[in-house]
Amino acid sequence: MIPKSFIQDLLNRLDIVDVIERYVPLKKAGANFVACCPFHSEKSPSFTVSQSKQFYHCFGCGAHGTAIGFVMEHAGMGFVEAVEDLARSVGVTVPQEASNVPQHKVAPDLYDLMQTATRYYREQLKKTPRAIDYLKGRGLSGEVAARFGIGYAPDAWQNLSSAVPNYQDASLVETGLVIEGESDKRYDRFRDRIMFPIVNIRGQVIGFGGRVLDKGEPKYLNSPETPLFEKGHELYGLYQAQKSIRAQQRVVVVEGYMDVVALAQHGVEYAVATLGTATTPFHVQKLLRLCEQVVFCFDGDKAGQKAAWRALENALPQLADGKRIGFLFLPEEHDPDTYIREFGTEAFEEALENSLPLSGYLLRELTSQVDLYTPEGRSSLLQKAQPLLGAITAPTMALILRKEVAALAGITQEELEARFDIKPLASPRRPAPPKAKRSSPSGLRTLLRCLVMRPELARELPRDWHGEGAEGAAIAALADWLNESADETSTAAMIQHFQNSVHEMIFASAQGEVMQWGVDFDVEAEFAGTLDKLHEESRKTELAVLHDKMQGQDLKALSEQERARYLHLLKRNPS
User: Fold this and answer.
1) Burial letters 222-250, b for 16+ CB under 10 A, else e
2) N or C: which end of the chain has fewer CB within 10 A?
3) Are 175 and 116 spatial neighbours (Cβ–Cβ below 8 Å)?
4) Which burial class, exposed, middle or buried, applies to 450 when counting CB atoms under 10 A from its CB (0-12, 13-18, 19+)?
5) How far apart are CA 184 and CA 296, in angstroms?
């Protein structure tokens, strides 16, 4: 685990403007910087970066966060990956807290070794007419082959011995390039294969996929799991495709390396492939960070159908309202490579446009397995649907699919939820609570804005302070966090802390609002004045409640404690 104190220190070292400008050109606009948002299509800039407060906010799509959040969203990295990437950029090492989970450190020379192998395979491709003819026969240009770093592993047992200083180096086995057999005999894993380097999101080669030129088994041979390479977390072609994925707001997931490269050759540059494994939740999560629509494109045979259903199951927990997941099944005689070569780019992209939505695919598969005209069939439908519906966390999609399945089964949504013993999504509205003392929403909103600008001001709140509603809860959570954190804090550290919490959106809204405050705005005076105003409102409300209880009588109508409180409140009356 990464210590929280390190996250705060890292954010203090970074300049969010420098970080974002690695990916997006920014322009100065008053106290802030602006650009067209990289997370949605727009013609005029609404993406705003505050250098003084180290956060960004898009007034168009609502994207928001810190330097860490930006790298996660823009590059599709996980939290740890993003922290490590940013730490390297400022020359610091990420410490690790004690954990029961084993930590794997990767030596830099392993990446160097993989790069050496990549150069070797590329050089061998240039010297091998048979391999060049194979790629040309598949319709690939030299430009596309170079873009993906495609190479060739000759048909010999120890090719890499001429590429590395020491063929007995343990790193060759550790990275999966070499296999160590009986009696310590070594030989290259990849022989007589077209080589596809697998590149992580930072552009580092972490593994290889090798395809036979002629007939042979296995058709594709992948690097094993290594300290560099974890199949369930990586996608082939993502590094090359990420710019196009951002621009198109779409990614198509295919099954093979050649499919990715062939699609790129025909102008579909937003394709990626899983690496000899089924689609995992990590894959789906990574892709949904990058774009609005994910389309799984599989062959129409039994293997393709099985892979598609596995993808659906792993996608359900990652669904987000507003994101789209679709499924495209090509004719059995085609894969994406052959389809786009025969019918062209326009036909393939039209097929993507008409892909089957996840909801439609799920319902189609469920209903095809049962007879809805019998009670037994409808009961079976509910049984099959239960784990699938229970896996969906996106509120709107969950609600719609529950309604759909309930209607197909001939029951109400409420009956379905009771049958599945799951929390209802559409509960009846509760009656409005009786009027009670509450702080002014507008005052709390102003207070929250001040705290976004200067989180340390929360230490000036009275110990018994409380506020109503979402703003009040967020302010209380901020005060609690501040009491537990170090003496120094920052807006960026606060935003990062509340990322993915129940308070994230209320803080994000306040971030957008304070973007308009100039650098000379007196936040301390605004905070003090608003806090005094809220105290006075609370005092008057409490006095009014006690007055109502007296019902025109004297103080005898109140308890001893209430009388003391009433007199205390009167003393504070400025009049």
Assistant:
1) bbeebebbbbeebbbbbbbbbebbbebeb
2) C
3) no
4) buried
5) 43
DSSP secondary structure code for residue 208 in this structure: E
Q: pLDDT, tens digit, for every residue of 464-473?
A: 666 777 888 8
Overall average pLDDT of the 152-180 stretch? 95
Instruction: Give the pLDDT score at 298.
Output: 87
For residue 23, give every residue at least 6 positions away whose Cβ sits within 8 Å of its Cβ, in sequence order, or none.
38, 70, 74, 75
Provide the b/e sequence for 365-388 (b: ≥16 CB within 10 Å). ebbeebeeeeeeebebbbeebbeb
Q: How far apart are CA 84 and CA 150, in angstroms?
A: 28
Query: Band of the pLDDT at 571, cuts 50, 70, 90?
Result: low
Residue 173 has pLDDT above 80, yes or no: yes
Q: Residue 445's Cα: distance from chain center in Å?
A: 29
Residue 542 has pLDDT above 80, yes or no: no
Q: With the C-alpha atoms ordered 185, 189, 192, 195, is the resulting torsion angle positive or negative? A: negative
Distance in Å from the first CA to the final CA of the chain: 57
More confident: 558 or 514: 514
Question: Cβ(332)–Cβ(299) under 8 Å?
Answer: yes
Work out the average pLDDT over 553-563: 65
Integer angstrom CA distances of residue 330 from 275, 285, 334, 376: 20, 25, 6, 33
Which residue, among 114, 122, 127, has the nearest Cα to 146 in the 3D structure? 122
Q: At what angle do helices 469-484 and 441-453 cross, to 10 degrees?
A: 30
Location of structure tokens 């689609």: 279
At 217 the pLDDT is: 85
pLDDT for 379-437, tens place per residue?
999 999 999 999 998 889 999 999 999 999 999 999 998 988 877 765 444 333 333 33
Helices 413-420 and 375-391 meet at what angle, rounded to 10?
A: 70
Spatial distance between the Cα atoms of 23 and 84, rounded to a whole number of angstroms? 17
Q: Which helix (H) or strand (E) holds 301?
A: none
Say which DSSP state 215 is in. S
* Whole-number Å distance between alpha carbons of 119 and 121: 6
Q: What is the pTM of this model?
A: 0.69
Tokens of 452: 């976004």
